[in-house]
Amino acid sequence: MTPTPPNTQLLHTGWQFKARAPQIPLNDDFTSDSDWTAASVPGTVHQDLLAAGRIPDPNVGLNEQGVQWVGKTDWLYRLEFDVPSLKAGEQADLCFDGLDTFARVWLNGELILESGNMFVPRRVAVAGKLREGSNELRVLFTSALLRGQAIEAELGQRQLWNGDSSRLYVRKAQYHYGWDWGPVLMTAGLWRGVRLEVYTARLDELACAMSLSNNLKRAEFPVSVNVKGQLSGNVVLELLGPDGAAVGSETLPAAGTVAHTFSVENPALWWPAGHGGQPLYTVRARLDGGGSASLRVGVRSIKLVQEPVAGEEGTSFFFEVNGTAIFCGGANWIPDDNFLPRITPERYRTRLTQARDANMVMVRVWGGGIYEDDAFYDACDGLGLLVWQDFMFACGMYPAHPEFQASVKEEAEVAVRRLRHHACLALWCGNNEDYQIASSVGAYGPGGDESRFDALSTYEELLPEVCARLDPATPYWPGSAYGGPDSTSQTVGDRHTWDVWHGAMAPYQDYPRYEGRFVSEFGMQSLPSLALLESVTAPEERFPASRTLEHHNKAGDGPRRLNVYIGDTVTIPADLPGYVYASQLVQAEALASAYRGWRRRWGKGGQRAVSGALVWQLNDCWPVTSWAIIDSSGQPKPSYYAIKRALLPVGIGLALGQQGVEVWAVNDTAQPQTVTLEFRALTLDGQELAADTREVTLTANEVTELGKFAAEHDAASTIVAATLRRGAAMIAQEVRWPEPFKYLTLPDPGLKVEILSPTSLQVSVLRPAKGVWLESAPETVWDDNMLDLLPGEARVIEVQNLDPQTLTVRWLGAEETVKVAEYERA
């Protein structure tokens, strides 16, 4: 939380903006009465142009192409605001929490600030520059694209993947330059808040580097805060428990730095989701007459464990929280919008709650976006989501000249100071894929010329120094992916598994072969929901290979690769609804294959061969065919539900072998689990070929191999299923169908959907059904979906906001999506 003096004036209303007219002197342009339009703060020029009707929505159709002039234009902002006279001894600071990106600021005609880093907030002392009554702020934003290109022309072009190469010289959100899932929308503006603080004294940099004893029985809260301005009076430091009750309080003189350590016996521990609760203590500082500041702190220890893996080469890479090894199933996070001020705290919490509800325990903040808003990390603290935090470098050979590194150091210090107290923070990571691109151009790895890898000093000297100095308790990792000399190592560090989709385009069934000790990226594309596509395409463009749909797939060869994977799996549909379903089915199958295969390798203590899998990606920033599992309208794709099942705390898996079917289970809980295992083999029309039932005990926090089951049958036409039950309740199931599905002749399943109540429905079949996908109104929330159903089982689905009139269903082999009521009547 930003410490705030009691006399704080938000400067968010009354702003105007206009495009800079380069033929006019700058001062005349600012004083001109023409062309000014109301500006939103926080905001971006794109948002305001859109609100004024001066540009079309770039999310719709091909409109992105017609708004590129915005990013090539300089922009002016101005504001008139009133200030009462300052009292004797009072100071005044103008605070700009986010300037995007090359900005010059004038107060009453005097240049007070020049900034060139979007990620660094600015504070300017202005007591001697303010006038009683009316004051004027002026801001010039120079085109980041053109300014970066000018720097590149001077210093030289550098290699990269994605976007304009000049981005490497500009400390701006790199995805604004376009990515293989996002548009080119070069924003500018006051993207975070602006305020005037007037004070005699204020608090600054409240910190609490909580520590926990090895036996988890004692926590220490070393609280410190700086006092700026006139040093008089007292500071009260307080520690409040998770219930809000006072744990301790200390009153100290307001010296330059005020510090006190609170100790708590038998503290309430913070745990990742699914492993315990998320209690948070409150650390608070109050200054006599000078405002207050507070932090929410969770009591937990975190460790990155790299130790030998018994019987294998290399070392592990797993996170240990409060002494417990945690399998980190999760996802990568990109900015949830191209226009960042549109992301509200509620939207952050909704999207992250979706991740938690899919049994995820980790999100990785990817290095081509931003250091997210406080609301993001607050939500992760409350939801129990660990955060792998990249520094903002992605897919490029970044420079390291002194001016650039000075800006990076300032940026890193700001980020670490702001985020270090969060219980969710698990790892600081130097970059995204910069070691890989360096290897690809011969600047890293065996035989590589590291003198060409300028940014090596950033990732291996500058950033680790900042982290060690400001947040020594949180592990630092040089990059993602990184495995020492081999950035694609399968036995050291973390790995990005793009052997499927990119590279050789390996079959998704082979995902388990391309493991890593921690797989921090992997994925498969699919289209977003049909409703979202229809909202951004003209009716005549609603077919699979239309110009508009291909524009909304930013991977250069994405449509071709997607067709390969669909065509390898099912017959490629010619209609858009069928194509959406087919792409989403393939994505769901692929990601389930990856999670289940790698989770089997979690093993046990001393043998943690694979310890995490973070899908690329959780979310989208606009309507697009991408690797996301939740589209930009917030609709989960079928893959979301496949992942949710694959990450159940107690899960089941199948592996088809030559000598039968191998069955295994994983128990992520802290207690042994005694459950019933059911094994079935069936024909495509539902005739039972084999069945077995036995009671099994699953060891805590381990994978248990449950043996091989005989399956003397035609593998090309037999379904096998393994189910775990506790009593009559199903707690996990995997069903494996003969592949590829396109070779199968599937009988009508005799599907029946019954609405049991406004919040539940029941689905059953007479014959096996693959990929049963239920849809209703956009606001409908499903507990489960994209189901494989077997005869003799009735699946009850919990649902919110169900609209029976719009309820539809589709399954693999159905010719089209059908309304449930019409289907039942038929």
List the helices and strands and how they pair.
Layout: E1 7-10, E2 16-19, H1 26-31, E3 37-38, H2 45-51, H3 68-71, E4 75-83, E5 91-96, E6 99-100, E7 102-107, E8 110-115, E9 122-125, E10 133-142, H4 144-155, E11 189-190, E12 194-199, E13 201-208, E14 211-212, E15 218-229, E16 234-240, E17 246-253, E18 257-265, E19 281-287, E20 291-297, E21 302-305, E22 318-321, E23 324-326, E24 328-333, H5 345-357, E25 362-365, H6 374-383, E26 386-390, H7 402-419, E27 425-429, H8 434-440, H9 456-470, E28 476-477, E29 494-496, E30 518-521, H10 530-536, H11 547-551, H12 558-569, H13 576-600, E31 612-615, H14 638-646, E32 650-657, E33 660-667, E34 673-683, E35 688-698, E36 702-709, E37 718-726, E38 729-736, E39 752-757, E40 760-764, E41 769-775, E42 781-782, E43 787-789, E44 794-800, E45 808-810, E46 818-819, H15 820-825
Parallel strand pairs: 24-25, 24-31, 25-26, 26-27, 27-28, 29-30
Antiparallel strand pairs: 1-12, 2-3, 2-4, 4-10, 5-9, 5-12, 6-11, 7-8, 7-10, 13-15, 14-15, 15-18, 16-17, 16-19, 19-20, 21-22, 22-23, 32-33, 33-36, 34-35, 34-37, 37-38, 39-40, 40-44, 41-43, 41-45, 42-44, 45-46
Helix pairs in contact: 5-6, 7-9, 13-14
